[in-house]
């Protein structure tokens, strides 16, 4: 399908290593996809769901030991250990190739190696980048055809000499002790072995579009961020764009597809989804920051998705979707998960493949894995932005950071300026979720929601943010939000989901200089009367409580930040040390 020697060489070398029985090129055609679906169903790898209720939809169950990203087995393999920084795991590239080479050796014997040419961004467009993923998993092939732009035209766009990110994936034995997700930013290469789960194996996503791309962005003067992108349409039809970085399973998909409360809809407000997970951001000729979504689908968290919390996401999953680790509803051959509705099917199979009947349900056995997911085509989304296919992306008015904090962080606050905003992003902390293996609910620092995804030294990454700010004439305003404040009984104080529109409205008004704010040591918070509560049951007292910035709590927070910053040594930008000492002074 191509004369590109680099592509052919990559395939030859990988085939020599993995020794597949055959090699199949993925051309992106409907016919080929349908054949692969049929093959996966014949082996039990996938289950075809009800063609009337969920046309072209499938269910897949991963191995029980393989349900989330594995951060402790994810490595940045660059020549100098220093360059990976204190947060990433590091391996020497030569040692990593040798060690993993032993695991890949013969790993595809008796299997097929699929060659997936894909593009992150519109095929052939200025800011798009190509990748080739070699994999022995049909599940990966089918997911990639939803999540990225796959096909012959990618090879054409690459031409005889074009570069690409080399991705090699083998399921091997799904052996946790030999599972490795290896990134070689200096050779544009990703190796993933012994997993068959999402972020570990859909190499265009976290591995390429964040870890490798963040490294490319630093060198080439752009940014790859773990951000949703949304359009905020006002009643007069003007659309303002916001990008927001929240850690995994902290609300990006939900915010990106938000349906405004009825009173807003009546006035003509709308939210448009440009992307729900990743943004590639550049300085435009107009001196503004422009963000584009390099993906083509949503790999969304299933549990909690329902007709009330996120109807647009639910609608997106009605066609051409792959469900992973959810409940198989045998009553009508559809799917179910916790939080879909209050009627779990009585005749069902749980995510592990075990019967899940009233008995198991009464015993409290969960039907779907907490990190179960849907892979849905972006074009299915009823609120997909008309700019989704615009290769340049959209100009940003605001950047929003946010995390899951039971206490401490107020509902929303605005930074003082760009550098202070970079500081606000760098000190983000959030409770861990089921999106990665390990303990859940532990507060950890997750700067810009990129802790697991920056492909180089986090101190240098902060520096890159500071430098980018200097290149932007019309800087977006930078905010922080927290939908997850809890009361003493552990209940959410803020209703969240669609009601977050009220906070977005304040953010846009601040960008346009239409509303005043209260200055606090950490930044500007809304006056309580400026957050519209009409039509909610949130009282003014509750709102005041979640807007409070408690000096004592924040003084402790500042100590935690100081501790966190220490590990970056002299690679912490001076601008951020200054921001921290200024904050401490304001808290005195
Ligand atoms: P990744 O795909 O892992 O990057 O996650 P994400 O950031 O896109 O998170 P998502 O929108 O899928 O939400 C994750 C979980 O948070 C779901 O269980 C949601 O129900 C819940 N959630 C999202 N938004 C809100 C909110 O405003 N309030 C509350 N309380 N929960 C929310
Ligand atoms: C995340 O964990 O942030 C995800 C899911 O978006 S995964 O693709 O597994 O990384
Ligand atoms: Mn994500």
TrEMBL record:
Domain Phosphoenolpyruvate carboxykinase GTP-utilising N-terminal per the UniProt entry, residue ranges: 9-217
Predominant localisation class: cytoplasm
Binding site for substrate: 69, 197-199, 248, 371-373
Catalysed reaction, written as an equation: oxaloacetate + GTP = phosphoenolpyruvate + GDP + CO2
Pathway the protein acts in: Carbohydrate biosynthesis; gluconeogenesis
Biological process according to GO: cellular response to glucose stimulus; gluconeogenesis; glycerol biosynthetic process from pyruvate; oxaloacetate metabolic process; propionate catabolic process; response to lipid; response to starvation
Residue ranges occupied by any Phosphoenolpyruvate carboxykinase C-terminal P-loop domain in the UniProt entry: 222-586
Binding, Mn(2+): 206, 226, 277
PANTHER family xrefs: PHOSPHOENOLPYRUVATE CARBOXYKINASE, PHOSPHOENOLPYRUVATE CARBOXYKINASE [GTP]-RELATED
HAMAP family: PEPCK_GTP
Summary of the function given for this chain in its UniProt record: Catalyzes the conversion of oxaloacetate (OAA) to phosphoenolpyruvate (PEP), the rate-limiting step in the metabolic pathway that produces glucose from lactate and other precursors derived from the citric acid cycle.
Subunit structure: Monomer.
Protein name: Phosphoenolpyruvate carboxykinase [GTP]
């Amino acid at each position: 399908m191509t004369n590109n020697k680099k592509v052919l060489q990559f395939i030859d070398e990988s085939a020599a290593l993995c020794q597949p029985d055959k090699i199949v090129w993925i051309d992106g055609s409907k016919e080929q996809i349908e054949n692969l679906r049929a093959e996966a169903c014949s082996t039990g790898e996938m289950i075809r769901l009800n063609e009337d209720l969920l046309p072209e939809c499938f269910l897949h169950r991963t191995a029980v030991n393989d349900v989330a990203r594995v951060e402790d087995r994810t490595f940045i393999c660059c020549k100098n250990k220093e360059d990976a920084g204190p947060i990433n795991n590091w391996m020497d590239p030569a040692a990593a190739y040798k060690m993993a080479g032993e695991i890949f050796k013969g790993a595809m014997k008796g299997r097929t190696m699929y060659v997936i040419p894909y593009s992150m961004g519109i095929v052939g467009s200025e800011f798009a980048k190509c990748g080739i993923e070699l994999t022995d998993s049909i599940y990966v092939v089918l997911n990639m055809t939803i999540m990225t732009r796959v096909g012959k035209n990618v090879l054409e766009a690459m031409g005889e000499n074009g570069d690409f990110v080399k991705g090699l994936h083998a399921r091997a034995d799904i052996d946790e002790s030999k599972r490795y997700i290896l990134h070689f930013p200096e050779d544009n290469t990703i190796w993933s072995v012994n997993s068959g789960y999402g972020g570990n194996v859909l190499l265009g996503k976290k591995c390429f579009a964040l870890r490798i791309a963040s490294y490319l962005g630093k060198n080439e003067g752009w940014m790859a961020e773990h951000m949703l992108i949304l359009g905020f349409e006002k009643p007069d039809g003007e659309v303002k764009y916001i990008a927001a970085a929240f850690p995994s399973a902290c609300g990006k998909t939900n915010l990106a597809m938000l349906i405004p409360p009825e009173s807003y809809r009546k006035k003509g407000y709308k939210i448009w989804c440009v992307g729900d997970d990743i943004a590639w951001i550049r300085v435009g000729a107009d001196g503004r920051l422009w963000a584009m979504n390099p993906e083509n689908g949503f790999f969304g968290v299933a549990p909690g998705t329902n007709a009330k919390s996120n109807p647009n996401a639910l609608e997106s999953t009605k066609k051409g979707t792959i469900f992973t680790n959810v409940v198989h509803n045998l009553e009508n051959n559809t799917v179910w998960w916790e939080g879909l509705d209050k009627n779990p099917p009585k005749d069902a199979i749980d995510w592990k493949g075990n019967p899940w009947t009233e008995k198991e349900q009464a015993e409290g056995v969960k039907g779907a894995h907490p990190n179960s997911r849907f892979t849905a085509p972006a074009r299915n989304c009823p609120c997909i932005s008309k700019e989704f296919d615009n290769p340049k992306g959209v100009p940003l008015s605001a950047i929003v950071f946010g995390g899951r904090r039971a206490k401490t962080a107020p509902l929303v606050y605005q930074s003082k300026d760009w550098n202070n905003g970079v500081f606000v992003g760098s000190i983000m902390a959030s409770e861990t979720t089921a999106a990665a293996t390990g303990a859940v609910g532990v507060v950890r620092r997750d700067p810009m929601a990129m802790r697991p995804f920056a492909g180089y030294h986090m101190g240098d990454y902060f520096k890159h943010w500071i430098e980018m700010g200097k290149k932007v004439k019309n800087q977006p305003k930078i905010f922080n939000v927290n939908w997850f404040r809890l009361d003493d009984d552990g209940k959410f104080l803020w209703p969240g989901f669609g009601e977050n529109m009220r906070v977005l409205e304040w953010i846009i008004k601040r960008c346009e200089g239409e509303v005043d704010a209260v200055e606090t040591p950490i930044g500007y918070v809304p006056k309580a009367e400026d957050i519209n509560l009409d039509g909610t049951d949130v009282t003014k007292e509750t709102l005041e409580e979640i807007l409070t910035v408690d000096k004592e709590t924040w003084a402790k927070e500042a100590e935690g930040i100081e501790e966190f910053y220490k590990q970056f040594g002299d690679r912490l930008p001076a601008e951020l040390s200054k921001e921290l000492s200024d904050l401490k002074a304001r808290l005195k």
